[in-house]
Amino acid sequence: MAESGAGGTEGVAGGKARFDDIYDRPDPRAYFRRLAPLEYEIPHHAQPVFRQAATERTALDDEPTVLLVRDQRRAAQP
What pTM, to 2 d.p., does this model score? Predict the structure, then answer.
């Protein structure tokens, strides 16, 4: 991984990038923009799985599909 100046990724050459400031936003675009310079591929590989899940869910009840990702760490807090 190359070092990047995109917020949260300074000095990431051999370390782990932090996304705390954007990870739980309702709109995931900033998160994926931050991943791009790091050449992170997991979201790309998971995309077909999420598309299929959304298609199957919509077929069940003809309602718009909204996928919510729940952070278990935050859910455990009182």
Answer: 0.36
Give residue 28's Cα distance to chain centre.
6
- Report the C-alpha gap between 21 and 30 in whole angstroms: 10
Angle in degrees, CA 60, 64, 67, rounded to 5: 90
Q: Mapping DSSP to helix (H, G, I), strand (E, B) and coil, where does residue 50 land?
A: helix
Cβ atoms of 19 and 47 within 8 Å: the answer is no
Q: Per-10-residue mean pLDDT for the chain, 78 residues long?
A: 47 70 88 84 79 83 71 57
Sorted by where each begins, the domain ranges of the chain are 1-78
Helices and strands (H, E) in the chain, number of each type = 3, 0
Euclidean distance between CA atoms 1 and 46, whole angstroms: 21
Element (H, E) at 51: helix 42-61
